[in-house]
Amino acid sequence: MSGYRHPVNEKLGLEVVYAIVRAGGRQEKVEVGTVLVVDRQKAGDDGTLSFAPVLLVDGETVTHAAEDLAKVSVTAEFVQNERGPKIVIQKFKNKTGYKKRQGHRQELTRVRITAIG
């Protein structure tokens, strides 16, 4: 399968390597060095995390078969835990005197992708 090659990358001789990973109910496009914010994850003892790839693009080779992707791992290093922006949930029912106010801040983890392969 011949894929699209960006003209600048072809001139410079750069090979594009990226992966689409499953992270907390979403899919994110990552390359080595990408900083990613995902739902709170527990890092291992060595401070690394692993993500399951859904798609891998290595130059002109596109891998999407499950048995081939089982051999591939995307590793990331833990950067910091943080909390998302505050959201306010308000409920109100007219003419009954019912009103409720509740807040929420999502717990997040910032990671940096270190290796694809």
Automatic annotation (TrEMBL):
Which domain of life does the UniProt lineage start with?
Answer: Bacteria
SUPFAM superfamilies in alphabetical order: L21p-like (SSF141091)
The UniProt entry's GO CC annotations, sorted and at most eight, read:
ribosome
Record keywords: Ribonucleoprotein, Ribosomal protein, RNA-binding, rRNA-binding
Task: Give the stretches traversing the membrane.
Answer: none
Q: Which PROSITE patterns match?
A: RIBOSOMAL_L21
Which Pfam family, giving just one, matches this sequence?
Ribosomal_L21p
> What is the documented function of this protein?
This protein binds to 23S rRNA in the presence of protein L20.
Q: Which family does it belong to?
A: Belongs to the bacterial ribosomal protein bL21 family.
- Subunit structure as annotated in this protein's UniProt entry: Part of the 50S ribosomal subunit. Contacts protein L20.
**Protein name, please?**
Large ribosomal subunit protein bL21
Species in which this protein is naturally found: Amnibacterium soli
The beginning of the lineage is: Bacteria, Bacillati, Actinomycetota, Actinomycetes, Micrococcales
